[in-house]
Amino acid sequence: MGKEQTSTRILHHDRRQGTEAGAVHQPIHVSAEFAYAQAQDLIDVFQGKPGFTYARQATPSTARLEQLINEIEGGVGTI
Fold first, then answer.
1. CA-based nearest residue to 33, from 51, 14, 9, 7
2. Residues near 34 by Cβ (< 8 Å), separated by ≥ 6?
3. How far is CA 33 from CA 4, 54, 60, in A?
4. What gap in Å lies between CA 67 and CA 9, rounded to an integer?
5. Can you tell me whether residue 20 is helix, strand or coil?
6. What is the rounded CA–CA span in Å between residue 53 and residue 34?
7. pLDDT score, position 19
8. What is the rounded CA–CA span in Å between residue 5 and residue 47?
9. pTM, whole model, 2 decimals?
10. Could you tell me if 68 and 12 are in contact, meaning their C-beta atoms sit under 8 angstroms apart?
11. Cα angle: 44, vertex 64, 13; to 5 degrees
């Protein structure tokens, strides 16, 4: 099978990355606060460990959008 067209990669990107709770596509997180069991876990996120702290800074939805832009552009990182 040949290389997929861009539109096919975009359409199936969510499902290939895995979704929450069996959703077909990634749910949209418009506003949320994120809790951690230990304060050190939150400190680790602020120091660069993957995770989320507050919706105005980043959400799973914006992270997925960044991944999709990387996929479309062939990039390695998006801000």
1. 51
2. 51, 52, 53, 54
3. 37, 5, 12
4. 12
5. coil
6. 5
7. 66
8. 38
9. 0.55
10. no
11. 140
Q: Quick one: which of 31, 33, 51, 29 has its CA closest to 42? A: 51
Give one DSSP letter per residue of 33-71, joined into a string. B---SSHHHHHHHHTT-S--SBTTT--HHHHHHHHHHHH
Give the tens place of pLDDT for each residue, 4-49.
787 887 777 776 776 666 676 777 777 677 888 999 998 998 898 8
* The pair of three-digit structure tokens given for residue 69, joined into one six-digit string: 């832009």
Distance of alpha carbon 57 from alpha carbon 34, whole angstroms: 11
Q: Which amino acid is at 14?
A: D
- Measured CA to CA, the distance from residue 32 to residue 53 in angstroms comes to 9
